[in-house]
Amino acid sequence: MKKWKDKEEFKKIFIRKSHVAWEKDVRDLIPNEVYQTVAFMIRDLISEDWIKTNKMYVEKKVKQVYYFSIEFLLGRLLQSNLISVDMETVCREGLHDLGWDLDAIIPEERDPGLGNGGLGRLAACFADSLAALRLPGHGCSIRYQYGLFNQRIVDGQQVELPDNWLVDGYPWEVKKVDKAVNVCFSGNAYMRPDGEGNLECVYENYHSVRAVPYDVPMVGYHNDTVNTLRLWRAEYTREDVYRVLAKGNRHEAFRYKDNVQLISRFLYPEDSTEEGRRLRLMQEYFMVSAGVQSIVRHFKQKISPNIKVFGHYVAIHINDTHPALVIPELMRIFMDEEGLPWETAWDITTEVVAYTNHTILPEAMERWSIPLFKELLPRIYLVIEELNKRWLQQVRNKNPGDEAKAREVAILWDNQVHMAHLAVLGSHSINGVAEIHSQILKESTLHAFYSCFPERFNNKTNGVSHRRWLIQSNPQLAQLIDSAIGNTWRKHPEHMIHLSAYAADTAFLEQLDQVKRIRKNILASYIKAEYDQQIDTDSVFDIQIKRFHLYKRQLLNILHILNLYYALKENPNMDIVPRTYLFGGKAAAGYGEAKMTIKLINVVSKMINGDHCLEGKLKVLFLENYNVSLAQLLFPAADVSEQISTAGKEASGTGNMKFMMNGAITLGTMDGANVEIHHEVGDDNCVIFGLRADEVMKYYVHGGYSSWDLYRTNEHIRMLLTHLVDGSLGNGNYAFQMLYDSLLDRNDEYFVLKDFDSYCEAQKNIGCRYQNHYKWLQSSAVNIAHSGFFSSDRTIRQYARDIWHIKPVEST
Ligand code: T68
């Protein structure tokens, strides 16, 4: 790996580079120019390794995995890349000599908003682990011009502003014009005899869109592996524009250009309209077709002309169902372009593809209307139709007269394309993302498929990159761990378990306390600077940061806070451990209840923070625009990790792991990976409350819970709900009718009220535990020690071994 020898060399290169790039004296650079200069210098360091990595994969003919994901939530890359090439100190010192502070330069990079939440961030951690483990694996996604919206809070309400993250350019990407491919939409497709007794497909009158890749390096930690994240952008071709222009209609030509570019313009365009849904389906096929075409082309050019051995060299992973069209796209290419018969094409396809499911919420399962699908992707539809026909024939032969069975597993049903069913049928491996989630998939959501293909189902509990979420986000804690157990954990996170021996070491615990204090102070300074609010670093920092959704139950959290507030008003001498409650997260623009919950939090926050009687006891803040960079400030500062989803609803959660790694205590339900965190650390070191998943399920199936009954019998609940709608919150300006309705008229689908008392107890329990500060620190240490299991390195090793069958590639 190339490096800067020392800070002197760094400065020399920096000055030369910035002269060429900006035609300015170094003293006149603006911070953004400094950021870009350093980024280009890092690109220089890694470029040889990047070329070499690809060459090595080809020369050694190793099997490679391509991880298709509609989102990659990378976060900033400057610091993580500096850490990977082990040049952070040299860079910091060099910049310092030149009058710049690296910490002031880092925020110049805009967070690439190429994701919504957990699923996209998981993909980024996986790319990080693949490179760190020297595994031959690459990402495939879309280069959205606009990321998810920027969130502002105005008058307590979420306002969505465009996230034009590319305005200043993106120094990490490389446009590869020569690697462009064409993706075809619409037109007519039909089968006709090929003259040799078989059928062949004719596909004509389609529109083609040019897909141009932008490659981003995924730099391995302290090794010389540089993998690739390939992001596709939709472009029009000059020839196509001329063709339209030749018809004499300039407006038509502009419309054509616009429509093509629209494909990669926004992450998740509004899907409440037919037009929005159409665009989303176009994005999915665009990414899939471009990605698959480029993989097949590379295989044929560089690996083998024999397409039948494709599966020995290529694994394709689909991150949820958004890329599931990989399956019919591979079939199309194998049959229409490579001339393989259906059966052979199908065998190779299922050999190659594997699928991860991330949700069991029925409303989150992807389905497309058949008329829309047929119109946009006529050739792909024919493949799916044939697949569905063959599959249902098999199912009906096995289960004669059982139409319910056919319905349960059909890809085409009720005028819809069921993407999860397509994904399961076309994959040799189907996995959930935590033990409990994988169990629910087998027993309930995908039970019918599990009966057909039990051997395909498996679990891969999620993990997070301890490099980003500990080494980079919390260097103080990382150093403390080094001083206790040495630094081998940085490459082998499972070694963190050796910290267990320090959970009873007073000197270590005191230092751990110091580290937490430092991190709480850093967060407090940020909050002071951004919100002009003073938060008490002696209080418990209790944090819930994640997307807003009814099932994640931010509402439960804020109702408890409101209850505490009323209790304190009634009894000002009540003895409580001072608390700072922090929230962050975005609500989908069209999700009324989620946006209303944000508003409720802000109204309650204003009321509580403005009440001087509560000073030193209770503070509530909603932090705007939660993203990866803000997350890096929040996880290290947390005492309590709020993981309070309705049991059975959160597939895994990954924030829970980042909190744990930074020494926070989980306050959670037995849901997702919380179950495994609880298993690792035991009852003494986390606080579990609420209904269990099987109890929730029983209520759904057999009934027996009435939120109105609770309302009538529980005076606290009655009082809280009354205040939601009687105008007493926010000076009578706000009525939270929508939330009231979801809790009562819609019978509290997510058991917020049912779990309320149990949650209040759990909060009291947290207070008691915190008061015994020595024990609290012990718990914190135990959590850190056991967080090694939740490193994405462990997860990726399991995928590599059990699903992809790929091995690390050592440089020669
Ligand atoms: C999350 N899913 C799960 N989905 O909710 C979370 N969905 O429990 C899990 O830890 C995480 O995946 C990683 O496995 C998502 O984040 C989405 O973002 C999403 C986006 C579009 C459509 C459906």
TrEMBL record:
GO cellular component, one term: cytoplasm
Reaction equations catalysed: [(1->4)-alpha-D-glucosyl](n) + phosphate = [(1->4)-alpha-D-glucosyl](n-1) + alpha-D-glucose 1-phosphate
One GO process term, biological-process aspect: glycogen catabolic process
GO molecular function, one term: pyridoxal phosphate binding
Residues the record lists as N6-(pyridoxal phosphate)lysine modifications: 658
Cofactor(s) the protein requires to work: pyridoxal 5'-phosphate
EC number(s) on file: 2.4.1.1
Keywords: Carbohydrate metabolism, Glycosyltransferase, Pyridoxal phosphate, Transferase
InterPro entries: Glycg_phsphrylas, Glyco_trans_35, Pyridoxal_P_attach_site
Highest taxon above the source species: Bacteria
Family as reported in the entry's similarity comment: Belongs to the glycogen phosphorylase family.
Function: Phosphorylase is an important allosteric enzyme in carbohydrate metabolism. Enzymes from different sources differ in their regulatory mechanisms and in their natural substrates. However, all known phosphorylases share catalytic and structural properties. Allosteric enzyme that catalyzes the rate-limiting step in glycogen catabolism, the phosphorolytic cleavage of glycogen to produce glucose-1-phosphate, and plays a central role in maintaining cellular and organismal glucose homeostasis.
PANTHER family assigned to the protein according to its UniProt record, in alphabetical order: GLYCOGEN PHOSPHORYLASE (PTHR11468), GLYCOGEN PHOSPHORYLASE, LIVER FORM (PTHR11468:SF3)
Name the record gives this protein: Alpha-1,4 glucan phosphorylase
Source species: Megasphaera paucivorans
